[in-house]
Structures are given as C-alpha cells and as structure tokens.
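Re: weekly structure request thread

Next one in the queue (116 aa):
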Amino acid sequence: QVQLVESGGGLVQPGGSLRLSCAASGFTFSRFKMSWYRQPPGKEREFVAYISSSGGIRNYADSVKGRFTISRDDAKNTVYLQMNSLKPEDTAMYYCNTKTGGVEVWGQGTLVTISS
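Done, posted below.
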C-alpha cells in the first residue's frame, strides 16, 4: 500500500542543521509532487516546502525560505528536507505528504526540537 516514512528528526541547538528524509513506497514516486509540512506544539499543521514531480519547481514557506532546501532522489524513492540555521520556532513534528488517486497521504512524522 501507499506509505511514507519520515526519519532524521532530533534535538539540535539553535543555528544547527538537520536533514529529514521521507521514504516512499507503494506508488510510482517519480510521477508525484511531494511536500513537507510541520505542526508546532499546540498549533495547526502548516506548509513548509513543495517539490514538483520533475524537481524543477520548488516552493517554500516564507518562514523557512533561504534556510531550508527540499530535494528528491527518484532512484531511492526519497524526498529530503535540508534544514540549516535552525531556530527554536522550527520546533515541530515534520510530515511529508503527497496526493495519489485523489487521496492525501501522510507519514507518521518525525520530531524536530530546537533548544539550547
């Protein structure tokens, strides 16, 4: 079945970096756009980044622009989120997302905590 599995979260000091991964299975990954979302503690889920199926179009939330980079490796069926210059307000559960057959698909999330 269609599945997304995130990894790479953890506790990092402000100014540090992390790379999140999302491994996809159960669908033809290369044909689908992928996105990252996050849900800070006590807040609504929010958009972080998007990459088109070709990888040629990437969009970012204003709050992460210039610090985060989304990329994909179709050979590995994986989408990445490189996060640099991390801030305490980046603390959240991070989810990857796609839409196949008209159905939204979410992973289980990976927790990112930015704290000194």
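The CA atoms of residues 49 and 60 lie 4 Å apart. The chain has a mean pLDDT of 97.
Next request, please.
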